[in-house]
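Tokens for chain A. Residues wanted.
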């Protein structure tokens, strides 16, 4: 209980600019700011830092062939797609 009251042994220190929009890398948990190169899983839309493109997605385990390179924050809501549009997105990506 003492550790909960005292934050001195907090292991995860996040260094980020709260005024600059960002997404979190799903593998390294670092902020990825707008206009910064990143990779997104085409299936679950998880974001990854550059250099992790040879990894498997930690959320859905898809491979790199399904990933797409992006720049910055992408607004994409898969719930708004109907099944035909979803299949087209998967084939194109």
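Reply:
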């Amino acid at each position: 209980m003492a550790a909960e009251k005292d934050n001195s042994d907090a292991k995860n220190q996040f260094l980020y600019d709260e005024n600059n929009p960002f997404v979190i890398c799903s593998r390294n948990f670092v902020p990825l700011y707008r206009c910064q190169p990143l990779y997104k899983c085409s299936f679950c839309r998880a974001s990854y830092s550059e250099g992790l493109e040879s990894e498997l997605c930690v959320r859905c385990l898809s491979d790199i062939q399904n990933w797409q390179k992006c720049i910055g924050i992408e607004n994409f809501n898969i719930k708004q797609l109907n099944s035909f549009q979803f299949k087209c997105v998967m084939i194109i990506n």
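Residues 45 and 77 are 9 Å apart (CA to CA). Residues 18-92 form one domain.
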